[in-house]
Amino acid sequence: MKKFSLTAMARTQMQLAATASSGRSANTVFGGHEHTLRQTVIGLAAGTELKEHINPGEATIMVLSGRIRLTSGQEHWEGRTGDLLVLPAGYSQITALEESGLLLNVAKIDRLEAAGND
């Protein structure tokens, strides 16, 4: 059993993001590329964008602190501290409207396996 303080981790990542040239910092809390589930705490400086990425399966963003905009195509949603946003299928982008700490949860779906089940 492991226990994490997501609030403390987000605070650390936001401090690192504030001094990073990219304006972002991240740390995988659980899982990784070899697992189905991956949880990553992300810190974003205000105005920073996580450029458009494809959703690799099922994914959510929990806003631990701050305010973000999630954009997919022509649609967008705003998330504030305490909000949980479900990432749509396909491509999406995240913009930090203010300094933000996020928990990204991703459950990867094997695309070949999923295609065989249609």
TrEMBL record:
Q: Where is the Cupin type-2 domain?
A: 43-90
Alphabetical list of InterPro entries matching this protein: Cupin_2 (IPR013096), RmlC-like_jellyroll (IPR014710), RmlC_Cupin_sf (IPR011051)
Q: Which SUPFAM superfamilies match?
A: RmlC-like cupins (SSF51182)
Q: Which domain of life does this protein belong to?
A: Bacteria
**CDD domains on file:** cupin_HP0902-like
Q: Write down the PANTHER family for this protein, in alphabetical order.
A: SLR8022 PROTEIN (PTHR37694)
Name under which the protein is recorded = Quercetin dioxygenase-like cupin family protein
